[in-house]
Amino acid sequence: MVQTLITGGTGFLGAQTARCLVEKGECPILFDINDRKTLLKGIEEKVKVVSGNLANFSHVLNVIRENRIEVVYHLGGMLSMPSEADPWASYQSNANGTFHVLEASRILGVKKVIFSSTTATFGMDIREDYLNDYTLQRPTLFYGCTKVFAELLGRFYRRKFDIDFRAVRFPSVVGPGVKTPGVAQYTSWAIEESYKENSFAIWVTPETCCPIIYYKDAALSLIKLAEAPAKNIKTVVYTLGGIFPTPSAKELSEMVKKKIPSANITFKIDKERTELITKHPIDDHLAREEWGWKCTYNLDQLVDDFIHELALNLKIYN
Description:
Largest sheet: 7 strands, parallel
Order of helices and strands: EHEEHEHHEHEEHEEHEHEHHH
Radius of gyration: 19 Å
Strand order of the largest sheet: 3-2-1-4-5-6-10
CATH architecture of the domain at 4-171 and 215-241 and 280-296: 3-Layer(aba) Sandwich
Number of helices: 11
CATH class of the domain at 4-171 and 215-241 and 280-296: Alpha Beta
Strand content: 5-15%
CATH topology of the domain at 4-171 and 215-241 and 280-296: Rossmann fold
């Protein structure tokens, strides 16, 4: 059995990735600054949670050494709005944290590092109609700056030290239980708050088209990328498009109201956050060609499954 570590393992995406690995027969180690287990319902006995801080090199080194880790899914770090509010802490977590993961992997002989990046690495001076794997990376947010650094550092460790570094750039990841504020989190909260019978105000214009991917697709993409034969990995860092065509905020709102007729969703525009959101559609053909990426949830299926998850596990997500 492969010994696997997931940084950010008890969080939104980390817990779902752990769930997928458990279904494949693995018992992953979950490393997180928060050792909560609320999102691990049903797999608590199949995983090991280790409390630690990515900003502390000894924490990272120890968890890899003590558990003889072979593959790291590096998903931990601060998100967009917290990073914007506290860039100093974000630097320690996102930039230094990634360096710590890669350096510990080099020292201890970790075979493979799978990294979750973001379309927030794009921002200013985009001239194409579509984002792709070669679009200029000139981020607006500090969060995006740390992710560009992490991507480039991973490429360096791949070339210099032969670590099999691979990464995906996610659009807005939609799913239940999102707690940390982000520029595009309305995509999750519009559904969850409506299910909980709370009113919700979307902070972008109705016409805003923010690329989205369901959290179950996101987790599966990481595992599919990790399992792809090395000979297929040519681009190394892949931008994923998620649902196509990209739904507008209005279309999302209408779909939620279709599924939850009592939903009270309005629009209260925040110009700053609207400007910061990635709005370009995404060309992800290289991920499709090189390792068989395919988005399985459309908007209708996403909202249905989201509601189903809330119905089954509402206490977990509250």
